[in-house]
Amino acid sequence: MTPLSTDSYKLTYINGNYYGQAIQNYVLPVTATYLVVAGGGAGGVRIGGGGGGGGVLTGTATLTTGTTYTITVGAGGAATNVTVDTQNINGNNGYTSVISGTGLTTITAVGGGGGAGTDTNSGSSGGSGGGGSRYTGTAGGAGTSGQGYAGGYGNPGFSPDRSGGGGGAGGAGVSGTTSGNGGVGLLSSITGTAIYYGGGGGGSALSFTGGTGGSGGGGNGASAQAGVGTAGAANTGGGGGGGGFDTSNYSKESSLPGGSGVVIISSTKTAATITGTYTTTTSGSNTIYTFTGSGSITY
Predict the structure, then answer these.
(1) For a FRET experiment, which of 15, 125, 145, 214 has its CA 20 to 30 Å from that of 44?
(2) Is 255 within a domain?
(3) Backbone φ/ψ region at 46: left (φ over 0), alpha (ψ -120 to 50), beta
(4) pLDDT band at 225, cuts 50/70/90?
C-alpha cells in the first residue's frame, strides 16, 4: 500500500529513551471490471456498406481511492444527408470511448468505421471496419486488433447487387455475395444480464434484400429500390445500415447513423463521487455504473 499522508508524529520518553510513533493513512486499491464501447460507424451513402461496430474493450483495472477517473462516451458516426444524386461517400466513423486517470493506463475503444459509399469506395477502418461497396466489389475496412473485426466485401456485379456488412466486435461482416449481414457484437454480462455490444450494420441492396444488422445494435441495410435502412442502436456501439436508392427521393439514399457507445464500471465498492449521465444498478455484491454520457467517477 502507498502512504497517503502522515497525520502526526508522537515522541514518548520512557526510562531515558525517546520512542517515536508515526500515524499514517493508506490508499486502498479498488478492483473494478469495465466495459468500454465506442460509437458505431454510419452506413455508406446510396446502396452503401454497413457501418462497423464500435470497438469493445473489457477487463479488470486497479483503481486508487481518492483519484478521479474521467469517462468519455463516444458518439456514433453522424448520418450524411443526401439531396442530390451522390456516389462514393463513405459513412462517418464513430467516436472513441475512454477511461483515463492518474496511475491508470488509458483505456481507449476506437470508433467504428464508416460503410463504403457505392460504387468504388472501400469501407473505412475503425474499431470494426465498415462494409465494402457493391458493383465493383470493394473490400471492407479493417478492424482494430483486440476490439473488432473487418467489414465484408461488396458483391461485384448485379446478382446480388449488395454491399458488405460492417464488422462487429465479435465477428467479421458478411460479404454482399452471401447476405451483407453485419458482424455479431461481443457478448458481455457485466451488468448481470448477457447483452451484445458493437454489432455491425447491414449492407444495402439495389434489387435484393439488404443485410441484417449484427446482434449488438447493428442497423439493417436498405432493401430494394426505395427501401430505407435503420440506424445503429443508442448506447450499444452498433453500426448504421447502408443507405437506400430512390432517384425520386434522394433523402432515402442518406447514410444511417451509428449508435452511441457506453462505458460500464462494476466493483464491490461504492463510488464516493460520480458525475455525468449514468445509471446505478446492482448485481450480487457489485455496484454497477453505466455511463451513457461522459462524466467522472471517484472511489
Answers:
(1) 145
(2) yes
(3) left
(4) confident
